[in-house]
Amino acid sequence: MATPSKPQFRWHIAVFLAPAVLVYTAVMIYPLFNTLRLSLFSEVDQDRVWVGLQNFRTLFGDAVWSDQFWNALANNAWFFMIHMIVQNPIGVALAAILSSPHLRFSAFYRSAIFIPTILSFVIVGFAWKLILSPIWGIAPGMLDSIGLKFLYQPWLGKEEYALTTLSLVSVWQYVGIPMMLIYAALLSIPDEILEAGECDGITGMAAFFKIKLPLILPSIGIISILTFVANFNAFDLIYAAQGALAGPNFSTDILGTFMYRTFFGFQLQLGDPHMGSAIASAMFGVILVGVCIYLFGIQRRLRNYQF
Amino acid sequence: MNMTRRTSGTTIAAHAVLIGYTLIALFPVFVILINSFKTRKAIFREPLALPDADSFSMIGYETVMKQGDFFLYFQNSMIVTIVSLTLILLFGAMAAYALAEYRFKGNTLMGLYLALGIMIPIRIGTVAILEMMVSSGLVNTLTALILVYTAQGLPLAVFILSTFMKGVSDDLKNAGRIDGLSEYKIFFRLVLPLVRPAMATVAVFNMIPIWNDLWFPLILAPAEEVKTLTLGSQVFIGQFVTDWNAVLSALSMAILPVMILYVIFSRQLIRGITSGAVK
C-alpha cells in the first residue's frame, strides 16, 4: 500500500469537531477564564481599571468581606460534611438491601426512592419549608402523635439548626444517586467471588464488609467527588428556601449565595461584577483543590478490579 | 426448615427498611398534592387527611391560572430543554465520533480539553457569561439559555458517546467506505443508529438538570415572556407566600410535568445509571 508523501488535510474531522468545540469554548471555557481575569479589575468612575490582586486583598483582608467569605466557606464545608456522613451510608445501605437476590418489587422501590432527585430545588425547598413550618403544623403534629412534641423547633428559622436542616433536605433529595451508582457497582461483582467467600464461611454482614465494600470503594470515591463539586457550587436550594440573604442572619449562606448577592447586589448594596468574579475565582480554587486531591491523592490509592 | 425461616426474616426486614424509606421519599410530594385540592380551612385543620366532598376545592388552581402564565412558562421550558438536548446530542455525537474514529494529531489533547468541563461547573463563569450575553443582545432570550445548557452538557455527552462509538464494528464502517459512502454518510447513516441507546442515556441525564435549573434563568432570562417553569413557579410562590392554596397548587403544577417525564423515561434513566455509563 502506497502512503501519500503529503497527508491530505482531512476536512471531515474538523467539521465533526467544530460545532462542539466552538460552543464549548465560547460559552464555557472562555467565560471561565474571562471571569478569572475580571477578578483583577475594578470599576472606577464607570471605567474598568486594572487593580491587580486588590479584590482578593479586600475579600480576604477587609473584615466586612472576609467574615462573610469564611462564614460562607465554613457553612459550605459543613453542608458537604453532612452529605458525606449521612447521604453515603444511607445510599450504600439502601443499595446493599436492593441488590440482595430474589428481592421482590425492587424495581418499584428503586424508582420511588429516586423520585425526589428529579424534582427541582424550588419544589423541594418550598415543600419542606411548608412541612417544617410552625404555622402549618405538619411536623409538630406528627411529632405530637408519637409523644415527641418537645423535640419540635422551627428548624429553618433558628440560626443553629437552619443549615443542618437544609443539608438534610438536600441529602433527602439526592440520596437516589449514590444508591443507584452503588447498586450498579454491587451488581457487577461476579457471583464466583461471593461463592468463594461462602466456601470460606464468609456470609451475610461479613460478606458485605469484607468482600463487597472494598470492591465498591472506587464508586464511593466517584460519588464523593461528584458531591463535593455539586455542593461547592450549590445555590438553588438555599435561594428557594431562605432567599438571597440566606437567613436567619446569614447562617445558611454558602459560596453560591454569597457570590449571587455580591454580583447582583441586594437591598442597599450595589452589585459588583468584579468582586463577584473574585468570589467565583475563589470557588474555582476550592473546587480545583478538591478535584486534585481526589485525582492524585485518593483515586490512585483505590484499586480498580477488572472482572 | 430453619434456613428458610431465617431467610424470610431477613426478607421481611429488607422490605420494612425499603418501605420505610420509600415513605420518607414520597411523603412531602404526597402532602403537597393532596393539600392542593383542599379548602384553606381544611389545609390547616387536617393537613394529612385526603380531600373529601366537604374539603375539596380548586380555588388554588384558579388563582394560579388567573395570575401566573404557567402555560407560557411550560412552553419556554419545553423549548429550552428540547433544543438544548438536540444540540447536545448532535454536536456531542459528531465530536465523539471524530475522537473515537480518527487518529490525528492532538486527538488525546482534544479529548482531555473537552473532558475538563465534566469536573468544572459552568456557573463559575457566570459573570463573564452574563457580560457576553449583554453585549451580544442575547439577554432575556431563550437562545442564551440554550447556548449555556448546550455548552454545559457537551463534555459528559462526548465522554459517554465516544466510549460507545469505539465499540461500533470497524468492518461495518469499512464496508460503507468500499461502497463509496462519504465519511458524513457513514456517521449519520451507519453509526448514529447504532449508538441510539447511548444517546437516550445522555438525553435523560441532561434533561432533568436543564429542566430544573434556577440559576441561569434567574440571571440570563428573568423577563416575564421568557421565564422557565422553574423560575416562574419560584417567582409566583414568592409573591403568593401567604396564599397557601395558590402556593400548594403552583407546587403541584410544577411537580406534574417532571413526574410525567419520569414515568416515561425512568426505565431508560435507571438503565443508563446502572449500566455504568458514568463510571
Would you identify the CATH architecture of the largest domain in chain B?
Answer: Orthogonal Bundle
Q: Could you say which overall geometry of chain A the principal axes of the C-alpha atoms support? A: globular
What is the fold named in CATH at topology level of the largest domain in chain B? MetI-like fold
Distance between the termini of chain A: 40 Å
Total strands of chain B: 0
3D structure, described in words:
- The complex is a heterodimer of chains A (307) and B (279).
- By secondary structure, chain A is mainly alpha-helical.
- Chain A has one domain: MetI-like fold.
- Chain A contains 13 helices and 4 strands.
- In chain A, the strands form 2 sheets. Chain A has a two-stranded antiparallel ribbon with strand order 1-2.
- In chain A, helix 2 packs across helix 3, helix 8 crosses helix 10 and helix 12 runs antiparallel to helix 13.
- The longest helix of chain A has 36 residues.
- The mean pLDDT of chain A is 87.
- Chain B is globular and about 75 Å long.
- Chain B folds into 2 domains: 60 residues, no CATH class; 172 residues, MetI-like (MetI-like fold, Orthogonal Bundle), CATH 1.10.3720.10.
Outline of the structure:
The complex is a heterodimer of chains A (307) and B (279). Helix content of chain A is 70%, strand content 4%.
Tell me the layout of helices and strands.
The complex is a heterodimer of chains A (307) and B (279).
Chain A: H1 11-38, E1 41-44, E2 47-50, H2 54-61, H3 63-98, H4 106-118, H5 121-132, H6 138-145, H7 159-174, H8 176-187, H9 191-199, H10 204-232, H11 236-242, H12 255-264, E3 265-266, E4 269-270, H13 273-298
Antiparallel strand pairs in A: 1-2, 3-4
Chain B: H1 2-35, H2 40-45, H3 59-67, H4 70-101, H5 107-119, H6 126-135, H7 142-165, H8 170-178, H9 183-194, H10 196-212, H11 215-220, H12 229-239, H13 244-274
Helix pairs in contact in B: 1-13, 3-13, 4-7, 4-10, 4-12, 5-7, 7-10, 8-9, 10-13, 12-13
